[in-house]
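ZP: hey, is the L-homoserine complex queued? I don't see it on the tracker
AM: it wasn't, my bad. submitting now with these inputs:
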Amino acid sequence: MVQVAILGYGTVGSGVYEVLKTNRDSIKEKAGDEICVKYVLDLRDFPGDPVEEVLVHDYEVIVNDPEVDIVVEVMGGIEPAHTFAKRALEAGKSVATSNKAMVAQCGQELCKIAREKNINFLFEASCGGGIPIIRPLYHALTAEVIDEITGILNGTTNYMLYKMSTEGSDFDEVLKEAQAKGYAEADPTADIEGHDVCRKIAILSSIAYGKFINYEDIPTEGITKITAVDMKYAKELGMAIKLLGTSRREGDQVYALVAPYLVGPSSQLYSVNDVFNGIFVHGNMLGDAMFYGSGAGKLPTASAVTADIIEEAKNLHKNVTYGLSEENMQLMSVDNVVGRYFVRFQGTEAEAESVFGPLDHVMDQIEEGEIGFVTGQMSFGEYQKKAEELGRIVQMIRVKD
Ligand code: HSE
């Protein structure tokens, strides 16, 4: 029997408990042994819940129990999650986690300890919820030189943008809905300010390009500045506003960015709606590939965590951790990245044209006192200079070509 301890009985933790119970027989067959939850750690009590039988409040019970083979860290946040995961690995227990903040910040260190101890640190659920993406990047796409990863990587904000666009919902109201559905982080600032996507694209890019990318080096914008008026312009353009995490190879350099984008119907990401996530990968041999599925929520995320538990149960004393490189990558500046920009400007077309040159899709009917337009191709640095020269710009959203 393989004994597991789950740290945190929140949305994901209770989901893992449920998946292990519901699919007990098929999991036993696949793991080659029974997987049994010996402990669940939480500060709270859960009167009447069957979890009471295995509930503990003290981590020392878990880390000092030699019968515990696998520790499942689904508490979220950096501390005490990081200390608990590190101590578990040092005690020879494999760790499975959905905690993207911890993986992005401490993943290099935790992978190293797992390698040294010949055990495993796995984090499939940290990116894309239930979508298999980390294993495919390590295994199925290992022959590729990856040129680009662009993803809708946050279920909460995708749900919000979709509802704002289709139902005209209010930002705060729809955020509350996403929280009630168990999509959002404990502090939803991480979702709406793009921090969650930033961690996820840092992890995926580190795997795809083979060197560790520090999430703090990735320029990040969230969706808090997106308004109902922007949605009207997007509709007029026949496009959708999506929060994207993107990284791309340009020559021998890589850039990464998190920002809202206008996405047209020719992109595979255009119809990734509601809480779903979509991750577009371009490989030099493969061409385009698209990974799609439930990006947040209790059971999809728990399913991915449980897959890691099964893999760890099958490899109790063998390191199969794909790992995060110990070498760091220096990202290129996004100022040098070329693109087109949707702009809302409180002035005339002639004024805008005098600075930006020929404009596309000029719209003067959407909001009084302003026009909207799309610029030609230019680097972000060039855009910034022109925007400063022109002034009176009330909004800019990048266009995904
Ligand atoms: N808050 C995250 C999201 C949870 O909305 O995508 C899954 O990582």
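AM: back. The CA atoms of residues 314 and 357 lie 61 Å apart.
ZP: great, adding it to the tracker
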